[in-house]
Amino acid sequence: MKHYKIFISTYPFGFYDSEPMRILEEAGLEIFTNPLKRKLTPLEVAEFAKDVDGIIAGTEDLTPLIQKNSKLKIISRVGIGLDSVPLQLCKDRRIAVAYTPDAVTMAVVELTIGLMVTLTRKVVLAHQELRTGGWSRFTGKRLGESTIGIIGAGRVGMNVIRILSEFKPKKILINDLKDKTKEVASILESRKIEFQFVEKEEIYGNADLISLHVPLTSKTKNLIGRKEFDLFQKEAFLINTARGGIVDESDLYEALIQKRIAGAAIDVFETEPYKGNLIELDNIILTEHMGSCSYDCRLLMERGSAEEIIRFFSGKELLNPVPEEEYQNQIV
Ligand SMILES: NC(=O)c1ccc[n+]([C@@H]2O[C@H](COP(=O)([O-])OP(=O)(O)OC[C@H]3O[C@@H](n4cnc5c(N)ncnc54)[C@H](O)[C@@H]3O)[C@@H](O)[C@H]2O)c1
């Protein structure tokens, strides 16, 4: 293979398993890793990767890099979200884009289900209270007696529905751009769990627990803000393990402080690492964009993205090129 330079912006990479790094080196690629060992700003990525041929990227906005680096040939995303990749610009510049869409699914699903139980059964409140001498034995509504709203029934949303079906929720309300009735029916009908595809507003007004699994696009930016929170039931909980920017953070703060909703669990933020005022509140659980942070998922994603880079520079076809549909979805 000719001599190519690759920058790995995402961190950690090859931390829990060295295989992804080893296969890149064995392929004869010159590898540069993120020297700051934290999420880089878009301008830092542009500077560190200004003369590489390919990048293995996390969720940093790559627009400044593409503007600065005229020889970039491939972006290999560790993960599924493409909101950080300006796809049309890549197409115009003939930059290939690969991702690892299936590697992350079950790790995000498990975190989501865990947050659902932790939030509705007030586990964090109990933990905090017990450490200061209290013992009030908080009580909550079981998932099995709840109406659950799922917005986005793709890889993650569909598997959340499948695992939730074991709890036998009262009803599952679903919203997706596509008609996924058959797929959902094949999971829920034999278990006699009622479900319905509905408009988003119907979910806001009727669900005890709403979980977001849509990508961040021009249509989902600030999807849930003040107007939507006003439709929520007072006892409703919101979970966002999808993307920062889908929920308006200042409107969420208002809704939580005014107890217009019961609580929220948020894994993803508009700006990460998150330093905002949601940390002041008791009726929220905050995690650190760690949906993909299981050992197996990190390895699958990192190896998958490394293999795409190797395939590309060996002149082979990509296994997971971003499909045309995703390019269309990004067009405003
Ligand atoms: N927390 C994390 O660490 C983490 C890790 C991986 C993925 N994610 C996020 O999880 C989310 C879901 O991932 P996935 O693998 O299921 O993606 P996916 O592409 O398989 O599914 C997304 C679904 O959302 C639907 N959708 C798109 N726009 C919509 C809209 N405006 N209204 C209703 N439905 C809409 C699509 O039709 C699709 O069914 C994404 O936002 C992804 O970025 C988070």
TrEMBL record:
Domain spans labelled D-isomer specific 2-hydroxyacid dehydrogenase NAD-binding:
113-291
Q: Which SUPFAM superfamilies match?
A: Formate/glycerate dehydrogenase catalytic domain-like (SSF52283), NAD(P)-binding Rossmann-fold domains (SSF51735)
Q: Which residues form the D-isomer specific 2-hydroxyacid dehydrogenase catalytic domain?
A: 19-322
Q: Which InterPro entries match?
A: D-isomer_2-hydroxyacid_DH, D-isomer_2_OHA_DH_cat_dom, D-isomer_DH_NAD-bd, NAD(P)-bd_dom_sf
What are the record keywords, sorted? Oxidoreductase
PANTHER family recorded: 2-HYDROXYACID DEHYDROGENASE-RELATED, GLYOXYLATE_HYDROXYPYRUVATE REDUCTASE B
Family assignment?
A: Belongs to the D-isomer specific 2-hydroxyacid dehydrogenase family.
Q: What is this protein called?
A: Phosphoglycerate dehydrogenase
